[in-house]
């Protein structure tokens, strides 16, 4: 592998013999010839992907129309509670961040969390038609985003391994729509595919195309629990302009909506009261509280509580994970630095099993490189981290049937936290 000089903002190391994980990799630019076996894999993966996609999309037109009688319906619940009716409330002149207003006006089960306000404009086209049309259109759009994430993953893999782009895209897309995490995005109607695409784009383009990386980071800011830690870690890795510009783009896009909500609500004071009420409600819900035995949280604070019964301070956990990760990723080259980055984002603050979708490109690259570099310092831990991170993708809630309800969430959370710890170990051994 040839040496290269680091570019500005590149914290990777110059390749040297025995350099281990701190050595940077030279991008692979040569095309890969497609052999008959690869064409067969492409065909089988495409067929499997189409069948799984059909199965995953069906709930969008099978789900009953929302009414108070079916408020507990899980199919498309995030589309219903976090997109369709919040946007309807906004378009009708209300404030969707007000839990009391949402529960009074619409058949929702969950309050509208503190998504970036530009979300209310970005996804408005899916809330303008009737509910059924909007649900089907959004699900198909999310499916296309999963395919786009698979293509971005194939591009990331080809930077290090001469794998055929089409074959890798088809295989990753098929695995995504067949996996528990991928199916959940479409079944529940989550907006994570767009966020995962933004996070992956920010990491891949941060040096060569910082403008595109900043725009991608702005998409990751759609949920602040993604955008804030990712911006912090990008800043720590030397991509300061990307971190600041992406954050500024997200803020600028949200500002008109915030101004409108402030004017509608009678001033900044009443608007802030609504935000406080939103946060207070979220902390008291059985699906959001850190000390809830039924919450589907996989972050460090929630996992510690589920395993030990002790409730750690969430701000302390957030700061501790970010500081520890930031120190290490500055001295660790890609792709393990990318894996540690996305894992830190997921475990530092409130996240659920489906949120590990942002780790797919980094997982694929580390998995593709592990065999050839398994003897180098840190790569054994890195490969094991990928195996641990695969747990939320692989299981089908069979552990719930064997050991009781919500056991799967505890297993998922513990596996993801272990994956982050292993990524930390990998980075430490390589530095």
Keywords:
2 domains; 431 residues; mainly alpha; globular; disordered N terminus; 65% helix
Structure description:
The protein has 431 residues and is mainly α. The chain folds into 2 domains: 43-66 and 73-283, no CATH class; 287-431, no CATH class. The chain is 65% helix and 0% strand. It has helices spanning 36-57, 59-62, 77-91, 99-105, 119-122, 131-158, 165-178, 180-188, 192-205, 210-220, 224-236, 240-265, 268-283, 300-308, 314-329, 336-348, 360-373, 379-389, 391-394, 398-403, 407-430. The chain is globular, with a radius of gyration of 22 Å. 50% of the residues are buried. The model is unreliable at 1-32 (pLDDT under 50). Belongs to the glycosyltransferase 87 family. Residues 1-21 are annotated as: Disordered. Keywords: Cell membrane, Membrane, Transferase, Transmembrane, Transmembrane helix.
Helix and strand element order: HHHHHHHHHHHHHHHHHHHHH
What number of domains?
2
Low-confidence stretches: 1-32
Largest sheet: none
Please give the radius of gyration in angstroms: 22 Å
Structural class: mainly alpha
The proportion of residues forming helix, as a percent range, comes to 55-70%
What would the average pLDDT be, to the nearest integer? Answer: 86
Strand fraction? under 5%
The coarse silhouette is globular
Region (Disordered): 1-21
Transmembrane segments: 40-57, 131-153, 160-178, 184-205, 212-236, 242-263, 316-333, 339-371, 378-397, 409-427
Protein name: DUF2029 domain-containing protein
Family: Belongs to the glycosyltransferase 87 family.
């Amino acid at each position: 592998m040839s040496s290269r000089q680091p570019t500005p903002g590149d914290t990777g190391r110059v390749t040297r013999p025995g350099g281990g994980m701190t050595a940077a990799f030279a991008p692979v630019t040569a095309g890969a010839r497609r052999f008959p076996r690869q064409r067969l894999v492409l065909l089988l993966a495409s067929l499997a992907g189409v069948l799984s996609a059909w199965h995953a999309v069906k709930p969008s037109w099978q789900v009953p129309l929302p009414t108070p009688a079916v408020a507990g319906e899980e199919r498309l619940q995030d589309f219903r509670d976090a997109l369709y009716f919040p946007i309807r409330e906004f378009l009708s002149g209300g404030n969707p961040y007000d839990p009391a207003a949402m529960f009074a006006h619409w058949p929702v089960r969950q309050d509208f969390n503190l998504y970036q306000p530009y979300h209310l404009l970005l996804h408005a086209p899916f809330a303008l038609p009737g509910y059924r049309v909007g649900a089907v259109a959004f699900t198909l759009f999310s499916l296309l985003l999963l395919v786009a994430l698979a293509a971005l993953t194939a591009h990331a893999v080809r930077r290090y391994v001469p794998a055929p782009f089409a074959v890798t895209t088809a295989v990753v897309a098929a695995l995504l729509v067949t996996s528990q995490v991928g199916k959940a995005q479409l079944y529940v109607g989550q907006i994570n595919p767009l966020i995962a695409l933004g996070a992956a784009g920010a990491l891949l383009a941060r040096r060569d195309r910082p403008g595109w990386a900043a725009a991608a980071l702005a998409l990751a800011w759609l949920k602040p629990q993604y955008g804030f830690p990712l911006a912090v870690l990008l800043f720590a890795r030397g991509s300061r302009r990307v971190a600041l510009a992406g954050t500024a783009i997200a803020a600028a896009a949200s500002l008109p909506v915030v101004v409108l909500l402030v004017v509608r609500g009678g001033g900044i004071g009443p608007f802030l009261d609504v935000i406080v009420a939103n946060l207070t409600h979220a902390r008291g819900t059985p699906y959001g509280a850190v000390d809830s035995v039924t919450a589907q949280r996989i972050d460090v604070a929630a996992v510690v509580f589920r395993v030990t019964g002790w409730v750690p301070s969430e701000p302390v956990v957030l700061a501790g994970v970010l500081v520890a990760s930031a120190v290490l990723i500055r001295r660790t080259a890609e792709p393990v630095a990318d894996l540690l980055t996305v894992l830190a984002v997921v475990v530092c603050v409130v996240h659920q099993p489906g949120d590990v979708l942002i780790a797919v490109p980094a997982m694929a690259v580390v998995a593709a490189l592990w065999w050839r570099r398994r003897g180098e310092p840190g790569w054994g831990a890195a490969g094991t981290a990928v195996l641990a991170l695969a747990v939320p993708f692989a299981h089908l809630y069979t552990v719930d049937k064997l050991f009781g309800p919500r056991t799967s969430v505890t297993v998922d959370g513990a596996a993801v936290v272990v994956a982050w710890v292993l990524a930390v170990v990998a980075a430490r051994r390589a530095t």
